[in-house]
Design brief:
Blueprint (H helix, E strand, L loop, with lengths): L6 E3 H8 L25 E3 L8 H4 L4 H5 L10 H10 L3 H4 L5
Antiparallel strand pairs: 1-2
């Protein structure tokens, strides 16, 4: 599952920075969850410390964390808003902040 929360996991860091060579997938899409092992996953703060949502997410189980992606982990809210504006999603920009 992918979520728009501003957080990241230690697992995502390892996938990005500690990847070992793997042969090309034989199917169209690689199931990235198949390669994740069973060691504990840490929930970490994302790049936007003002919008940090790790406290809210801290009750998620290890199994759920292993299967969750945080695509906004390396982005700030301001940058995401700029991306939305460039893509023409002006209704998102008008949404009230919580």
């Amino acid at each position: 599952m992918a979520t728009g929360h501003y957080a990241r996991t230690s697992q995502e860091d390892e996938e990005v920075f500690l990847q070992s060579h793997t042969s090309p997938p034989t199917t169209l899409f690689r199931n990235r969850f198949e390669i994740r092992n069973r060691k504990p996953v840490k929930l970490c703060k994302g790049a936007d410390l003002v919008k940090d949502q790790t406290f809210f997410l801290s009750q998620i189980s290890q199994d759920a964390l292993r299967q969750t992606l945080f695509p906004l982990s390396g982005l700030t809210k301001d940058f995401v808003k700029k991306m939305a504006a460039e893509a023409g999603f002006h209704h998102v920009l008008k949404k009230k902040e919580v």
